[in-house]
Amino acid sequence: MDSSQVTLFGHWICPYSIRVQFALGQRKIAYDLVEVPPRAVRPRDFVVPSEFIEHSPKLEVPMVKCGTEYLADSIPILEWLEELISTDSLLPEQGEDRHLVRQRVQWLDKHLYWPMVGVYYGTDNVKIAEASNALGNALVEISTWLQDSQWLAGTQPTIAEAIMVGFYTRIDGLRELGLTASIPTEVAAHIDRCKQLEGWGHVEWSAEQTNEFVGRFQKYREIQNARS
Ligand SMILES: N[C@@H](CCC(=O)N[C@@H](CS)C(=O)NCC(=O)O)C(=O)O
């Protein structure tokens, strides 16, 4: 398969898009990026590409086009890219290691992402504090994985890192939006290691992007609170 035919329909502000963009960068797969801002932050005059409307079942980013085929939903996309392209894999071949990666990917998707999204989409302080605490608890659990290994699942970076960097890109912004939980030492060291990876350069936020993220969600809160 010619990897030059990969197109990512995504957006930097979407942590699910970041998962895929990180994996593409880390695996040195060439790709085109078509920016589709999620509805909550979409400029009014933005014209959604018809190709995206036609092929994305839930109108969610990320969606990937490989050759002539399309797939939406980040975790299936990461698996699909592993099936299609074998270079610089982020999924171990062996059964048990592969199982651990998949298990941790699912765990992060649920126990890290739910509270993370809860912090920035939160509109009342009690809910934001609850999400922040849940996120802190998730980080404590993750720190136990990192006591045994430098990486989240096994001895190499895997698609579990792709999930995690969706959180790492926005930590500073989350702090401004109400994240108070502390980052365990093992996780802080893991952040530093992830920042050395090739994929990080594809997803890292500038200070302007952090400010834009914070500003857009502060505005979102204002609008929601004015309505209620
Ligand atoms: N389960 C999906 C979730 C993707 C998702 O929630 N994407 C959001 C943006 S972060 C989206 O596009 N929502 C529709 C919209 O806001 O227009 C995945 O893992 O890719």
TrEMBL record:
Residues 4-89 form the GST N-terminal domain. Pfam families: GST_N_2. GO terms for cellular component: cytoplasm. InterPro entries: Glutathione-S-Trfase_C-like (IPR010987), Glutathione-S-Trfase_C_sf (IPR036282), Glutathione_S-Trfase_N (IPR004045), GST_Omega/HSP26 (IPR050983), Thioredoxin-like_sf (IPR036249). PROSITE patterns: GLUTAREDOXIN_2, GST_CTER, GST_NTER. Residues 94-217 form the GST C-terminal domain. Signal peptide: none annotated. This is Unannotated protein.
